[in-house]
Design a protein that fits this description.
Layout (H helix, E strand, L loop, with lengths): L5 H8 L1 H8 L29 E5 L15 E2 L3 E13 L3 E2 L2 H7 L8 H12 L7 H15 L2 H17 L6 H9 L4 E2 L2 H9 L5 H10 L3 E13 L5 E8 L12 E3 L2 E5 L3 E6 L5 E6 L10 E3 L2 E13 L5 E10 L5 E4 L4 E6 L3 E5 L6 E6 L7 E3 L2 E5 L7 E7 L2 E8 L11 E3 L2 E6 L2 E6 L5 E6 L8 E3 L2 E6 L4 E6 L6 E7 L9 E3 L2 E5 L4 E5 L8
Antiparallel strand pairs: 1-33, 2-3, 3-6, 4-5, 6-7, 8-9, 9-10, 10-11, 12-13, 13-14, 15-16, 16-17, 17-18, 19-20, 20-21, 21-22, 23-24, 24-25, 25-26, 27-28, 28-29, 29-30, 31-32, 32-33
Helix pairs in contact: 1-2, 4-6, 5-6
């Protein structure tokens, strides 16, 4: 009689038990709370044993050509959704937003008198002022002239202009280029005629003429399925799309053999076995970064407004016009009394009745972060500095504010975590641990965490740092909270790591990578 391993026996007798621990079925995991299986035992220090690279996929574009969507998995396959861009030759010429950014034309968003002062200082800089002396001068100038918010939003741009000295673009030239942003010139000759009429310097005229691309962006809405064992592409589903750039960064959702996601200008459903399109519904806008939530028979997404579509047909079931935006992702709050959809809008957090789309409640919050909900608690990372990290509690069939942790930071995109009796914020340039019940700050330390959201595995927090360059291991125990060790991972900035059992899926700039977490205890 052939021997059967315990893991295989478990999968045959109770497939739901094994698949549940192996899946990461949607943005932020199966329960949309950033938590993977607790059965993983992660090494106390990656300096001794780093996560082992298992495989890397074929080339997959990102950023301007493929967005920043993260990975999901059903335990057998990994899936990624992207708007796949390509360049095609064209006779037309366009000064696009992408061209302006790559060309280095950036506006300084400061009061005019402050801009004039900075420009006079830049032009009068002694060219012999270099290195650390120049860095110190720049630091002093910014400290003396900018407030804290201006430092966060414009400090690095001014520093860059000071370092370029007289070689920095004239801001009047930048304004001229922005005046024709996204204008289509019918030919190179038409573009050159416009350039000649402008008061650019001869060198600038030549640089613009030669730099505007001779191609145009085209795009397809794509879902890829990869074999979780080796990274082989199993199928590629593709629909003609619109070139919506890096703004299109939706993470798909898997449920009952179907993949639901948002493309460049549509929401659609793909069969996870065959890669065939089940349905598609057009949208009136492009560039959605938020990810869909599937609840019962509804596919819910923030696509201009919060909308629900029938999961079998794509038919629009309801729209809530109070909740607006396209970068936040809805989540489900299973309160002690009822199920509610929680989603950040522009300036507030909303709770919506999934049955009819009506607003049940709204409060301070807003922004791109995804709330995390557990039992009677909802934790929101809000855009408003006076809100910061805010905790709401379900009490007597109503929602009350329990506490808030105000902060002034440039970013508020990362999603928080709840673990045991504590709340964690890993983002906005910090690592913070607070008591969930009271909001008391246990510990806070600076960290180069930005937009990416952390995940929890084996009682440890895993988070990208320094634009995805490193994967940081963070202790969750309040008395020991803080960074333990990190490993160079080279992840794509703005994405978030995903788990499949003891495997961690990382999206890189041009491919997907899969690693085995050190010391995993659930291996057969």
């Amino acid at each position: 009689m052939q021997n059967i391993s315990p893991a295989l026996a478990l999968s045959l007798l109770c497939p739901c038990l094994l698949s549940a621990s192996e899946s990461w079925s949607q943005w932020r995991g199966d329960n949309r709370d950033g938590k993977g299986t607790s059965a993983i035992e992660i090494s106390g220090s990656w300096e001794e044993k780093e996560p082992k690279l298992l495989w890397e996929s074929d080339l997959i574009p990102s950023q301007d050509d493929g967005g920043f969507g993260s990975l999901i998995s059903d335990g057998e396959k990994a899936y990624v959704s992207l708007v796949w861009h390509r360049d095609e030759p064209t006779e037309t010429r366009t000064i696009s937003s992408l061209f302006l950014r790559k060309f280095g034309a950036r506006k300084v968003n400061l009061p005019s008198e402050l801009v004039d002062k900075a420009e006079k200082a830049r032009i009068s800089l002694n060219p012999r002022l270099r290195g650390s002396s120049l860095d110190k001068w720049i630091e002093n100038w910014i400290d003396e002239n900018l407030d804290q918010r201006q430092k966060m939003t414009q400090g690095s741009l001014l520093a860059s202009r000071f370092k370029k000295g007289k070689l920095a673009f004239n801001l009047s030239d930048v304004d001229l280029l922005f005046s024709v942003k996204d204008k289509v010139f019918q030919s190179q000759e038409a573009l050159d005629r416009w350039i000649e009429k402008q008061p650019f310097s001869p060198g600038m005229k030549e640089k613009i003429s030669q730099s505007v691309p001779h191609t145009k962006k085209m795009a397809d809405d794509v879902v890829l399925a990869l074999d979780l064992r080796n990274g082989t592409t199993l199928w590629k589903s593709s629909l003609p799309g619109a070139p919506s750039g890096r703004s299109s960064s939706s993470t798909p959702c898997f449920l009952d053999g179907k993949i639901y996601t948002v493309g460049s200008n549509r929401i659609f459903c793909v069969d996870s076995e065959k890669g065939s399109i089940d349905w598609e519904t057009p949208l009136e806008l492009e560039g959605v970064a938020g990810s869909v939530l599937v609840h019962e028979e509804l596919v819910i997404a923030l696509v201009g407004n919060l909308r629900a579509y029938h999961r079998d047909s794509g038919k629009l079931m309801w729209t809530n016009k109070q909740v607006s935006g396209k970068s936040a992702s809805p989540t489900l709050w299973k309160t002690p009394k009822k199920d509610l959809i929680a989603c950040n809008g522009g300036k507030e957090i909303f709770l919506v009745n999934p049955k009819n789309g009506e607003t049940f409640w709204k409060g301070p919050g807003g922004g791109s972060s995804t709330p995390v909900c557990r039992d009677e608690w909802m934790l929101v990372h809000g855009k408003d500095e006076k809100v910061g990290l805010i905790a709401y509690r379900w009490e007597d069939s109503s929602v009350v504010e329990a506490w808030r942790f105000p902060k002034l930071t440039r970013r508020s995109d990362s999603s928080p975590l709840i673990h045991d009796d504590h709340a964690y914020l890993i983002g906005a340039g910090m690592r913070a641990c607070l008591e969930l019940e009271s909001g008391k700050l246990i510990r806070k330390e600076m960290g180069k965490h930005d937009i990416s959201s952390p995940i929890l595995a084996g009682g440890k927090i895993l988070a990208y740092e320094i634009n995805g360059s490193f994967l940081q291991l963070i202790e969750t125990k309040p008395e020991q909270f803080g960074a333990i060790s990190k490993v160079k991972i080279g992840a794509l900035r703005c994405t978030s790591p995903s788990l499949s059992g003891s495997k961690i899926l990382i999206r890189k700039a041009d491919r997907i990578a899969c690693y085995e977490l050190s010391g995993a205890s659930n291996q057969p």
